[in-house]
Specification:
The protein has a 13-stranded antiparallel β-sheet with strand order 6-5-4-3-2-1-13-12-11-10-9-8-7. 13% of the residues lie in helices and 46% in strands. The protein is built from 3 helices and 13 strands.
């Protein structure tokens, strides 16, 4: 009888492992859950906090247009404070190759293209990079499921293309079908930043429900700085004009 116990344990373990999804399958679940928002507008607040807890507050408005064929497009425009009012970032998220991004600087009345090698840089002095703003496209990473519990999956993502990160480790809530935490590792493999996704809210578009975080806190573990973005007056399911998401419209 005692000889049967190890065999049963092996069979039970095999069944559990067979039922576990792959890292790619988990991230596909997240992508599928977040599809179908069509278009969105919102007001945003960004708070920059330095290592001494000094704070700077910024107010922005945002628009995002879903584009399942080529990649989503978004515009973030700063309203306050006065010294950066009118600054706009336009992002075309690309399904392959680097994202396309343009920054309008009202002080100089010109549009600056953010090339691929600069997308790992800080977005307007925050702990969010231009790469972070562009979002994560499935085909640009390889995935590995590190662990699974009753409530969450933990997935490691490794970039295939040039990136400011060597890898990311994402905690995905099974209840929300969305991330609650992402750890970002620099090119040397050291932990650089940690983002926390909080205040999730359900939005209904036609027959679909989508969970979206209304607050993201990005903490730089190396500099002790952090940036917090919160969303208000968010509307989904809007039909936006593609013509508004052109670099020529930023001025």
């Amino acid at each position: 009888m005692s000889k049967l116990i190890p065999i049963i344990s092996i069979l039970f373990s095999t069944l559990i492992n067979a039922a576990a999804p792959t890292g790619l399958e988990v991230m596909k679940k997240v992508q599928e859950h977040n599809k179908g928002f069509i278009g969105a507008t919102s007001e945003m607040k960004m708070i920059l906090v330095d290592a001494h807890d000094n704070k700077v507050e910024r107010v922005m408005i945002g628009k995002v247009m879903e584009n399942s064929k080529d990649g989503d497009r978004s515009i973030t425009a700063f309203k306050k404070p006065l010294d950066i009012k009118g600054t706009k970032l336009l992002t075309w998220t690309a399904k392959s190759g680097p994202n396309k991004q343009w920054l309008f600087l009202p002080k100089f009345k010109r549009v600056k293209k953010i090339n691929a090698r600069n997308q790992s840089g800080s977005f307007m002095g925050s702990e969010f990079s231009y790469e972070d703003i562009g979002g994560q496209i499935l085909d640009k990473y390889t995935y590995k499921l590190l662990s699974e519990s009753k409530d969450e999956w933990i997935v490691e993502s490794t970039p295939i293309e040039k990136s400011g990160y060597s890898k990311m480790i994402t905690t995905v809530s099974k209840k929300l079908t969305n991330p609650t935490k992402v750890q970002y590792f620099d090119r040397r493999g050291d932990l650089l930043k940690v983002s926390l996704m909080q205040d999730y809210k359900i939005f209904k578009i036609k027959d679909k429900s989508i969970n979206m975080a209304n607050k993201i806190t990005m903490v730089n573990k190396q500099t002790k700085k952090k940036s917090i973005i919160s969303w208000t007056k968010r509307k989904l399911g809007l039909k936006l004009k593609s013509n508004d998401f052109k670099s020529s419209k930023l001025k």
